[in-house]
């Protein structure tokens, strides 16, 4: 058997014919495992993955990894065969006692219940309401970029804490109508829920009597967030504004539904841009010719956003559960099996995207699945696109071409494609 060649993540590529592991969250700290994904797409498009104990988190029963674009879209669109309600949407199985609680959020529901909740929040999260914040988003981008230049050391700055974390957080809190004094709470909650697999990014997890880490999405650990949501909703009813929380507070929602909407908007709404924005800058730093086309205006920023989302999707994976025995790409899936789609793999499927490893900012068509597909397509995609477009426009107007000033650090996670550190050159004229 020939020796395995190294893959682009720095680890050894699996031997030819072997099914590569794409579960271990530590893989993703070295970069998206594109060589492993390609091997799966070519030879094992629906492949069984073991789910061993990792970093103290308990082992699971395993799951089917879905890596081709067509199969990913099929799973995301077919809620009858592939359920969000049956086992929620994370690879890790929830505690059975927590499952009824998790099913309160529309993320973990199937139609028709999902549709009722989505219609309710859609009326609060309208494009018109989002667009009303565009000028504030632009001013914030300018302020944060100027601040990064001012605090640069030797011409460089870590743009994650200096720009992108604050940009995503403050834009979201403006949209939700959260008082300035409370905004740090949202970042703390996001890190606790999203970054829990990363020992450097997340706080030490709380543990149960047997020493097993408690799921950060369990109701026992979300009480503080829910209490705040109730308090904020009461405040908005007394003093309404033009923000999303006012609209939710005035909607016909049960208290538990309002709490879960707040949880979903706080965590998903923050982390989508918090992950995508530094990922876009990292991609541009690695493709100076592409950036020059963006900076010159040869490629519109909104078109560039789509390609940057393709190469750096904010979410790496989502889980469904087979509702009945079915077949996918020639594999028999049993009722109750976990079926996990891998967005970054679908976005690099050679069957759909020509030269997928190349950053082509004017790529068209560009049917990436970075915001999902089907009934659960990202509700905040319009707001995320607006923020990313504005950040690119303001960067090219005020900043030098993105250039690494040190090694970046990615999040240890098989769920969120996050950046924990991204030092870039920020001094010098725009170019």
From TrEMBL:
Q: Which Pfam families match?
A: p450
> What domain of life?
Bacteria
Q: Does the keyword ATP-binding apply?
A: no
State the InterPro entries in the record.
Cyt_P450, Cyt_P450_B, Cyt_P450_CS, Cyt_P450_sf
What GO biological process terms are annotated to this protein in UniProt?
Answer: cholesterol catabolic process
Q: Which residue stretches belong to region Disordered?
A: 1-20
Question: What GO MF annotations does this protein's record show?
Answer: cholest-4-en-3-one 26-monooxygenase activity; heme binding; iron ion binding; steroid hydroxylase activity
List the keywords (alphabetical).
Answer: Heme, Iron, Metal-binding, Monooxygenase, Oxidoreductase
The keyword Heme is annotated on this UniProt entry? yes
Family of this protein: Belongs to the cytochrome P450 family.
Q: What is this protein called?
A: Cytochrome P450
| Species this chain originates from | Streptomyces globosus
């Amino acid at each position: 058997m020939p020796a395995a060649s190294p893959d682009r993540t720095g680890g050894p590529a699996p031997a030819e014919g072997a099914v590569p592991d794409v579960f271990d969250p530590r893989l993703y700290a070295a970069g998206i495992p594109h060589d492993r994904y390609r091997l799966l797409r070519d030879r094992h498009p629906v492949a069984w993955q073991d789910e061993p104990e990792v970093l103290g988190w308990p082992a699971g029963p395993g799951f089917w990894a879905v890596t081709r674009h067509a199969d990913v879209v099929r799973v995301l669109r077919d809620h009858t065969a592939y359920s969000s309600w049956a086992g929620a949407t994370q690879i890790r199985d929830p505690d059975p006692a927590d499952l009824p609680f998790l099913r309160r959020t529309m993320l973990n529901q199937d139609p028709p219940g999902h549709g009722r909740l989505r219609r309710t929040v859609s009326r609060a999260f309208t494009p018109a309401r989002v667009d009303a914040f565009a000028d504030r988003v632009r001013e914030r981008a300018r302020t944060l970029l100027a601040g990064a230049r001012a605090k640069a050391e030797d011409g460089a700055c870590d743009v994650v804490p200096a720009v992108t974390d604050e940009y995503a957080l403050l834009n979201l809190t403006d949209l939700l109508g959260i008082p300035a004094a409370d905004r740090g709470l949202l970042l703390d909650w996001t890190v606790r829920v999203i970054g829990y697999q990363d020992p450097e990014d997340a706080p030490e997890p709380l543990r149960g009597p047997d020493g097993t880490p408690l799921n950060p999405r369990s109701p026992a650990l979300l009480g503080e967030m829910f209490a705040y949501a109730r308090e904020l909703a009461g405040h908005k009813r007394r003093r309404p504004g033009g923000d999303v929380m006012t609209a939710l507070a005035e909607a016909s929602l049960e208290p538990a539904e309002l709490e879960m909407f707040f949880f979903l908007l706080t965590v998903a709404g923050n982390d989508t841009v918090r992950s995508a924005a530094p990922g876009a800058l990292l991609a541009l730093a690695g493709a100076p010719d592409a950036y020059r086309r963006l900076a010159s205006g040869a490629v519109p920023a909104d078109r560039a956003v789509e390609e940057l989302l393709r190469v750096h999707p904010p979410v790496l994976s989502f889980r469904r559960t087979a509702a009945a025995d079915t077949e996918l790409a020639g594999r028999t899936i049993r009722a109750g099996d976990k079926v996990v789609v891998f967005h970054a793999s679908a976005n690099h499927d050679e069957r759909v995207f020509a030269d997928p490893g190349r950053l082509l900012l004017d790529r068209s068509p560009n049917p990436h699945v970075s915001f999902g597909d089907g009934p659960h397509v990202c509700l905040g995609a319009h707001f995320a696109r607006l923020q990313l477009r504005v950040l690119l426009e303001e960067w090219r107007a005020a900043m030098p071409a993105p250039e690494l000033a040190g090694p970046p650090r990615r999040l240890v996670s098989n769920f969120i494609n996050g950046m924990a550190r991204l030092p870039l050159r920020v001094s010098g004229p725009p170019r």
